[in-house]
Amino acid sequence: LFLGSCTGLVAFGVFCGLIYSNWGYIRLFSLLLLGCETDKKNREILDGDGGQTARYLEQWETINMKDFIKQGFTLQWKDDLSINNRQRQLKIKKFRGTEEAAREYKVMLEEELKENIVIPIGKEQIKWYNPTFMIKKANGKWRKIPDTKTLNKQIADFHFKNHDSNEVKQTIRLGDWGTSLDLSSAFRHLIVQTESQPYLAFEFQNNYYTYRAMPFGIKHSPIYFATAMEPIMQLIRMKTENRITNYVDDIFFPHQSKEQLKTMTQKVIETLIYFGFIMITEKNEAEPNQTVIFLTQD
User: What is the DSSP string of 181-203?
Assistant: First the structure.
């Protein structure tokens, strides 16, 4: 495994190349730097995939990220006006969809409850309702989407640059072999701080739920996920001296030697699992090939 002490990776190093605004950097990391106490519920180790990484704190401590993972995803508000606006979003927004969509929704919700991705919440605890809807993907499968557009308007803006497909393309050299890895429900590996959970609530069939694991759709979710992934990527690059890069939850690993790439890819998989990440086996291209297909995020 590409593991070991990595004390040189301090909190500032995590954000090098990611956060370009000093104000955004200060706002996002203020809770960690001030030692903000994590809620007791977020320290509990629960079964299921939701917030999976919080069960691997000893491993994250090796790359100086234990506090970040334990703290979890926290909503950062714009200003006092947004704080006042939060009091106005208490109108229940019920799920609307076809009978087929409702059936699929129920199945998906039961799975999310089982995995502790979402949890029940009392109506009196809710501070913000987010409508949810279902979309049918090209492959016939359904996806549940929280509509967080209104919530996002109340959240602070951070200037953030994530790796994009162009950067991935620039790592490719003539004669390279490549493998790609896909993390399962990537954002949901991170827990949501309990204080933020009442703002992520939704309704289905007169029952109320909220996200315990970081949902897709919140504009800060990619920032938190990239912050968690970057020190792991740096660690792997340091140990392999290779050009591994990630585009959101997809990890691309090029190498000139097909056989060395096979060995390195397996070690990368083991490293990611070590930190609590779950892989999507059917989406992984762990066998080296020389054809790269770039897809838009689905």
Answer: EEBTTGGGGSBBPGGGGGGGBEE
